[in-house]
Amino acid sequence: MQKKECIAMLLAGGQGSRLKALTKRIAKPAVSFGGKYRIIDFALSNCVNSDINTVGILTQYKPYLLNSYIGNGEGWDLDGLNGQVSLLPPYYTEEGGSWYNGTADAIYKNIDFIDEMNPEYVLILSGDHLYKMDYNDMLKYHKKTGADLTVSVINVTLEEASRFGIMSVDSDLRITKFTEKPKKPDSTLASMGIYIFTWSVLRKALIEDSSDEKSEHDFGKNIIPNLLGEGKKLLAYEFKGYWKDIGTIDSYYEATMDLLKDNPHIDIFQKDQKVFSNSNISPPHFVGNSGKVERSLICNGCIIDGTVINSILSSNVIVEKGAEVRDSILLPNTKVRKGAKVVRAITGEGSEITEKAKLGSSAKNAEIVLIGDNEVYK
Amino acid sequence: MERLAGLISTNYNNKKFGKLISHRPIAAIPFGSRYRMIDFPLSNMVNSGITNVGIITPHLYRSIMDHLGSGKDFGLSRKNGGLFILPGTTYGYDLGIGKFSIRDCYGNLQFFDRIKADRLVLSTCSKIYNIDFRDVDEYHIQKEANITFVYQKNATGDAGDIVFDFNEKGKLKSIRRLKKKEKNVCLYLDGTVIEKNVFVKILDWYKDNSYIDVMDAIAENLDRFSIATYEFTGFARAISSIEDYINVSLELLDDKVMRELFTGDRLIHTKIHDAPPVKYFETAKVKNALVGTGSLIKGQIENSIIFRDVIIEEGAKIKNSVIMQRCKIGKKAVIENCICEKSVVIDDGEVHKGTEKKPAVITND
């Protein structure tokens, strides 16, 4: 295989416990999003659209669906002669086995994999962020500035700043201070969890960190402050587009419903930065004689004989006669039976709303109702 | 042991398809919002567990090759077996009569020698139905037949279609070709299970007179074979003209038909495009329609088939029509009883109306 200039390591082991029932069965990057996608599609598609064709995916929490969804990477054209997807779960060694204990530890445990690929640079990504970005621009910047580490940053409000890793920079965007979730932030430049490291620098830092017993083996808490302390060249790369960390049910709902706007933040119809996915085989969707669809996104395999307004229907959703779906997100294989009503709700994969059942409330500021995968709501 | 291998002929045409076949064979005509005609026989084969499929290509085979690729989307990109492209050698075979020429098969004799199969499943791309050929094969074995034909009772066929006549005892009396449209016939569904050695023997008999159709060759020698007929009772339609094309397309909007063809265990496979979901806007109105992915809908759709990546602007009205992929229908345009070819752009306010009997075909030419 040809030598790689840059490979991506995609952290996809997170549980995402704040997404509650949505991640009960599957890892957060595998959660269905925007009808036919799963959250990880956005980071993977960014890789493909940035000509990064080697991606290591680090899995840990309930990986089955993620593994089968990624497969050999062919959905993203990552199965070519000169590219590949590698699923990298924690493993057992002669010294015993252990889980990935922190983001840096996950990469440390896969030094062999990265050495095998022998890249100049390593791009670290999260599998649970929603954005479109050309990593190539960031890589060019990293090379031009001769940085050891480039951190992609986004400007947030002062109120939000305490939820992120916050950076102070000088006039050349060189990072002078990095604080993880500061109580009193002195900057509004937030880390997006997207890093490009010069591999030799990262390799050394990971090995040193692994033997530090006090370390939490986390990029934000340990690796970056350590490199900063050593006087390495750390630069911020400002990203101007839309970026969202889907952390909670509310932010998941908001980010999904945004797709229904005339000019959404994430344009899934854009041809030059296409979002790829591992498409399932389903027939075209069918709207029957009594069906009505307004202001909605509808996926293949849906059969609609009821009313669907301002909603997102993922693959193979059934809405029977007399049923009404409003302001809701129906994940794959949801069945809404005759006369049922679903309002401001998120229904898990394979769930069922039985005949005449009522789920959710249209009252203003009512909480988004969530039912889990394969749940039956009566 | 792989018992069955498939053979699909795409090297035939029929002038009754008019403009729909000016750049492609019948097999490559888009059908049913996201498929092409060939997807039906090919899916029937792979869904019957067949992993060796030969495709006899026509003279204009770009669209077929583009659609099938390596066979990956049909699960036929394999080390062992898979998809075999068998170049057809008959050219100008567009009289709407034969669909399976001996010459095309004989020219690819090595394919039959090499594949590990006892029996072949033959099919064309002109009949739309969803069948498990394993059932036919089982019947074939049970009847100890050399050849088993799949047919449907009380069907409608057009000129060139093959029908079976049975005697009072239910025994196959004759095989004949229709000269014009006929209703209530026992229509051959262009599906056959045949012993490989019998098939190769027929090719050998006729190698010097090879412009003859396989079915005509069998009909001439009916007494020399043990022939069984398998009645298919599900939804099946012959598509032999533009009129058939739009009528059968709109028949897909029948809830029962749609479910039988598309939502059972045997899904129809096709080339994967990975388009986004369909986006309906505030002004959209849709009733009785099949809609492919990637479309943006602001106008009205009634009783129609919409393919992938179609744009329907505000105030546009589509009724009883088939709109193929990447068409753009302008504001307040009216389309009724029409077939819009791929990538056709209809300007704002344009009106196109065909009739139920004679649908209009709109192309870019």
Index terms:
heterodimer; A: alpha/beta; nine-stranded mixed beta sheet; B: alpha/beta; Spore Coat Polysaccharide Biosynthesis Protein SpsA, Chain A; UDP N-Acetylglucosamine Acyltransferase, domain 1; 2 domains; eight-stranded parallel beta sheet; 9 helices; 19% helix; 32% strand
Textual characterization of the structure:
The complex is a heterodimer of chains A (378) and B (365). Chain A has 378 residues and is an alpha/beta fold. Helices cover 19% and strands 29% of the residues of chain A. Chain A has helices at 40-49, 64-70, 103-108, 111-117, 135-145, 199-210, 219-229, 249-257, and strands spanning 6-11, 32-33, 37-38, 54-58, 84-88, 92-93, 96-97, 121-126, 129-131, 149-155, 165-169, 175-180, 189-198, 234-238, 243-245, 285-287, 292-294, 296-298, 303-304, 307-309, 312-313, 318-319, 324-326, 329-330, 335-336, 341-343, 345-347, 352-353, 358-359, 369-371, 376-377. In chain A, helix 6 packs across helix 7 (219-229). Chain A starts with 5 loop residues before the first strand and ends with a strand. In chain A, 50% of the residues are buried. Chain B is globular and about 65 Å long. Chain B has helices at 39-46, 62-68, 102-106, 109-114, 133-142, 196-205, 214-220, 242-251, 255-262; strands at 4-9, 30-31, 35-36, 52-57, 82-87, 119-123, 127-129, 147-157, 162-166, 172-177, 182-195, 227-231, 236-238, 278-280, 285-291, 296-297, 300-306, 311-312, 317-319, 322-323, 328-329, 334-336, 338-340, 345-346, 351-353, 360-362. The A-B interface holds A 34-36, 74-75, 260, 262, 268-269, 274-277, 279, 281-289, 291-301, 303, 312-313 and B 32-34, 72, 253, 255, 258, 261-263, 267-270, 272-274, 276-282, 284-294, 296, 306. Strand 18 (296-298) of chain A pairs antiparallel with strand 14 of chain B, so a sheet runs across the interface.
